[in-house]
């Protein structure tokens, strides 16, 4: 494929004239049927690396992605741009929808699958006869037990890939430390991989931490910043209630700004509307939890504030990476109070199932003739419906060969040893998570350049910042003068609004 | 509006059912029991008018009514009664609403939902096409709606966007003018066009200073009004195109519908129970459900004329709607099934009238 041909394809299908850094190299390798592992920071256009090949290659491109909403967003966006041979197979589909999709499975060029779909023999058997031109593992860090979002389901990917006779593989992620990178490549077991690692640091984002001594001071600081800088802004919170509370506080104090909140507790319709309003410049500020952001393609966000910091650096980097997508001068501010650490600590403590429950369930498995389904139901009930806890438990038992093909087998390991093994695993994972949290805290207390400190785990070389670097080096609020455009929110009678909406006279 | 509906339901049920029956009624759990009760207590208008209602939100609202002393919680913690204060309050808000209250769940609980989605998506689509903008993310995600809207557009596009916009504008104006400005305003704010994404429920709640429940009700109320206007052939020009193709609108559970099919084939209760591997009592419940809708249902296989008249007379004499009370007034030989059937058949004359208001 000649140089300009790729660009022509890009232009024709997406309307972009040039590739972003990394995209072209990766796509070329993919088109040459190489196995590829790529680390590209959030927002730099990872998905294009398989979407464009899907349009160019004959056969089907399969994408395994863990984020249902991201998957459906991408399908919607692709359809909106005119590419219709795309579909997502996941648990959100109704029975009929899934059947319809499976019926015509060979008509798609791009097929998204959630990892749990790989468990279905029926689905695999429908995919197997397809000519698969590329097998994509999106968010590949989920396969690493040391990645920040390990998903046991992801371990099936390797098996599926082999079942499908090892078509060329593309593993993508936005954040991975060198050891996690190693882990991913090992877990996927693809020989002879081309690696493309691009730096995570964004030279156009200045990093600021503001220490506060009271909650009130935090609120005041926030109000002051929002008042001063009417740029598109995201404010991250670790709780839904706080996001909603602070949103209404801001609404009351900053009258000339349109502010809303967004979290996983809103219904689908409201979430969609808020996202679209933000895209459409009807909102300037969104107070959100980490539920927001996935699949958001807003290019003009210039300020990301952390009212609460996340429990690990990886998430933090992803979240601040939503700013400055067009290279504009942008700022990340973390408002930090000494006691803030309690929140992520509490969240961490509920991340894995209680060892007491684990022991109880194990005893049942060993002492009585319970069915897999019964254990599943009871377990989920005992952990208050926390599905991830069950997945963790199931995966651990599979690893110990206590579960095989959804049946219990207690001959491989004794009850005592099983308990010890699980206990160890849980401890180890907690230890790991606490270390992560500590890294985050250490960064907040850094006494040197924040940029260097933040990215040292991920890369050796750090790019020269294009604007102010950080509050340690050179950041001064008065030197930040972003250009901005204010959103329009007019209050008018319904008669006039209706006329405008439906284009009736002026 | 939500308060009004809750208080009305509580008043009519008068402690004879638990509050959860009201929850099931509003959220349209289409079970035989819910449907029978809605008939029995004259609450069919409210059937399925608030499908997205969650149990928690419902509980919270009941607690609030209790806190405001509009209702009292009985010792069982499950049934409630309205207080005098609640009664007065109800009369007052009912007066405010009565000129523009259109909710009719029995008739529109399915249609209204679908129609509202059609309308929202069609307006978004039309305004985009009017601006020659083919690419947008649909505000309604469900595929059925998307296909419906596409079909309507294909059929109507020869009219041109300008003409359709005008028709919709006129149709909506006719309807909206009959509502208070705040209701019309909230409705218009929830529309999405090419220029402006509609407001979410909680944003509208904030803007008009109402609860997010009432945002839902005021929107749905207007939708029901449009549905009614369409059904009664009022002079709307374009909106009827967006009206869903008629489905089984009757207040009938799917299961009862199947039983109806076998009845028409001439099968007996036992035979139906056998074929469907259901309990005999379940089939009997279906028959009662059917009797509410098909007043001409042939009941002679289930009791003698004498028995029918006896039950009917007793019902007329008694005030209570508690089956137990009714049964104890009647000879042992009369079954609950027979009583329920008579209520259903004569329901409206005998008991449909609400004697609590
Ligand atoms: N070559 C390009 N030129 C301009 N915009 C691009 C290009 N590639 C991708 N984009 C845009 O960048 C945004 C982010 O892409 P996405 O794939 O969602 O990022 P990621 O998955 O890396 O976070 C999308 O809006 C996409 O359309
Ligand atoms: Zn620095």
UniProtKB/TrEMBL annotation, chain A:
Residues 218-363 form the Helicase C-terminal domain. Coiled coil: none annotated. Keywords: ATP-binding, DNA-binding, Helicase, Hydrolase, Nucleotide-binding. SUPFAM superfamilies: P-loop containing nucleoside triphosphate hydrolases. InterPro entries: DEAD/DEAH_box_helicase_dom, DNA/RNA_helicase_DEAH_CS, DNA_helicase_ATP-dep_RecQ, Helicase_ATP-bd, Helicase_C-like, P-loop_NTPase, RecQ_Zn-bd. GO terms for cellular component: bacterial nucleoid; cytoplasm; replisome. One of its GO terms (biological process) is DNA recombination. NCBIfam families: recQ_fam. This is ATP-dependent DNA helicase RecQ. It comes from Gracilibacillus orientalis. The lineage of its organism: Bacteria, Bacillati, Bacillota, Bacilli, Bacillales.
TrEMBL record, chain B:
Residues 255-343 form the Helicase Helix-turn-helix domain. Pfam families: HTH_40. It comes from the Bacteria. This is Uncharacterized protein YpbB.
